[in-house]
Amino acid sequence: MGKRDSNNKLMEETKENLNSEFFKEYKNLLFDYVEERLELIQLSAVEKTAVLTAKLSFGFMVLSFALFALFFMNVLFAIFLGDLVQSRSLGFLFVGGFYVFLILLALLFKKKIERPIMNMVVKQMMSKTSSQQSNS
Fold first, then answer.
1. What does the alpha-carbon distance between residue 91 and residue 65 come to, in Å, rounded to a whole number?
2. Cα angle value 67/59/72 (rounded, 5°)
3. DSSP code of 1?
4. Following CA atoms 72, 74, 80, 82 in sequence, which dihedral angle do they give, to the nearest 10 degrees?
5. What is the H or E stretch that residue 104 is in?
6. Which residues contact 74 (CB under 8 A, 6 or more apart)?
């Protein structure tokens, strides 16, 4: 019986050593996986932020040029209206009044204007990045 007990004891110790090594190895693999996954999430967030920033910057640049053009066209239109009504100040008043009207409309429909913009930003942030699309 003594030999059987020592064999059982040896088998138990071997099992414990194997289990201990098994769990250590998989613990290390799990930590490596979590670390890599966090890095992937960070890189994905950086890419999405860069894409959104580039799109917003380009949009701002185009908007700036459009506003300059619109400004000069409005001055020209105000002068034209002023010549029609025989008073340049009235021409500028009409053009200014038109923009005050547009501002009031924008304030009135603020929620309906904001919602599509927010949806576009969320859609851009939630879309798959180019690296995620190549992995799919």
1. 24
2. 10
3. -
4. -120
5. helix 88-108
6. 95
In angstroms and rounded to an integer, the radius of gyration of the C-alpha atoms of the chain is 34
- DSSP calls for 42-102: HHHHHHHHHHHHHHHHHHHHHHHHHHHHHHHHHHHHHHHHHHHTT-HHHHHHHHHHHHHHH
Under-70 pLDDT residues of the chain: 1-8, 10-11, 14-15, 17-19, 128-136
Contact of 124 with 55, CB cutoff 8 Å: yes
Average pLDDT over the chain reads 85
Q: Decide: helix, strand or coil at residue 117.
A: helix
Tell me how far the alpha carbon of residue 15 is from its chain's centroid: 51
Tokens 């799919």 belong to which residue? 136
Task: Please report the pLDDT score of residue 77 as a whole number.
Answer: 96
